Amino acid sequence: xxxxxxxxxxxxxxxxxxxxxxxxxxxxxxxxxxxxxxxxxxxxxxxxxxxxxxxxxxxxxxxxxxxxxxxxxxxxxxxxxxxxxxxxxxxxxxxxxxxxxxxxxxxxxxxxxxxxxxxxxxxxxxxxxxxxxxxxxxxxxxxxxxxxxxxxxxxxxxxxxxxxxxxxxxxxxxxxxxxxxxxxxxxxxxxxxxx
Length: 195
Fold this sequence. Notes:
CATH topology: Rossmann fold
Strand content: 15-25%
Largest sheet: 7 strands, mixed
Distance between the termini: 10 Å
Strand order of the largest sheet: 3-2-4-5-1-6-7
Order of helices and strands: EHEHEHEHHEHEE
Shape: globular
Number of strands: 7
Structural class: alpha/beta
Number of helices: 6
Number of domains: 1
Radius of gyration: 16 Å
CATH architecture: 3-Layer(aba) Sandwich
């Protein structure tokens, strides 16, 4: 027997290209979670960093639009220590959404020169994050970009970033009970373990 198409998995990775519908899918699952029981909570861990005016405006727009689409979804902003927020906020009545893993990795590894010290800390941070994901007592939805389908970047630092993101996506997919690929707003289930 397979689980219903829109069930909330213990943990789900939602991958896709830019503007593929990843965040909207996570929000839909949060609305379903919150509608299922009034004692439930949902929080989004936002990893975006306001580097410039355009990014500040984008973050403000996302915050505003998210509040309209999912009124009960709280937002926690954290660019680096998402493992600590998972440990602090995960429980069986709370759905956590991490949006997004790609920006989180960017905060750790880019720009390459400025992040050299953090890059040395990345393997330990990645292991700590994966451990917090596996030990979480409540459901977690993780959003990330699948950027390995395009051309190979010419710069060494960008190739290293693409390699690191591919490795992170593989590790998170292995740890999650469900993996969804978003294409043109449509969810394609890649992995689904029965509950």
